[in-house]
Amino acid sequence: MSVINDTIEDAMKKGYEAGYKTGYEQGKAETNYLEIPDSWIPCSEGLPEEKHDVLITKKPFKIKGYEKEVIEAKRSIDPRSGKIEWWSPEFGSLTDESVLAWMEKPKPWKGETK
Prior knowledge:
Layout: H1 2-30, E1 41-42, E2 54-58, E3 62-63, E4 66-67, E5 70-77, E6 84-88, E7 92-94, E8 99-104
Antiparallel strand pairs: 1-8, 2-5, 2-8, 3-4, 5-6, 6-7
């Protein structure tokens, strides 16, 4: 009986994976999906220009009731202390230690709309 159940579960899993992949590919084609290359730059290797909007990856922590790891932010330097600061319109001030990596924001899509 166990062999039959395992075979049924394997068949269901393969069918689900095939259906998921087909749906994913169809969704990409229908929505003019654009994959953004992985161009994250670790903060240890360099920082963006000051007051330049970028996407950042931060250490995960729960804030405002939910957890979010990729957000839009700007980097600046506190003129009094000389410390690096990050500011997000969504979360406000972030500590420099919480920001792991950053990347340029992708350009907006300028294709046709239906």
